[in-house]
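Many introductory courses stop at the sequence. We go one step further.
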Amino acid sequence: MKNSYSPYGTGRKDVFHAFMVQNANFDGKDEIPCVNTTDKFPKRLVPFSKAISETNHTGFVVFYENDEKIERLWNTPQKYLPILKRFDGVVTPDYSLYCDMPYAMQVWNTYRGKAVGAWLNDNDIPVIPNIRWGDERSLDLACMGVEKGKTIAISSHGCIKSMEYKQLFTRGFDYVVQKLAPKRIIVYGRASERLFCIARLYGIEVMSFESDFGLSHKKEVV
């Protein structure tokens, strides 16, 4: 879908962050902003809360953290733009999508993540789209605004706590793989061998990165 959006309410405060999508195209019935995917891939992943004070700028910034830690980017994006520009690239924000969350809220959080991605595109920052789904209702939504045959990023953090969540995560993973046919998948957090098998069947490269939680847990065990 071509760009049909223009900031409204001339002279009023832009409380809905229209500036983020003023150059964007939109996808699907829910009009999710489209994100241009970089061909670069990360050597490491840096959580947003650590990126703020990080001195090693190698890697991509990710937002696989509690919402209260990443909400500040949405609230004051210009403040954090110089910080994000220091790194090799950014994976779009991972605003929560819960299974019991109303669909309208799932649309809003998906929209916000892709809007930030479109804005980062405008600011010449390499971007990889994050794919997040809640339940079956949001599987197609999760793929909107994402280029096929490119790199995508997912996180298993908080998605495999029970057998029900594991099954939903696996079904969603299979759906996304078939829908987007990605060349490469960045996985943040633990992933079952079954997921890797699904990816291999489709000839997809998988790059797995341990989450900060997983790394800290290993240190505690040692």
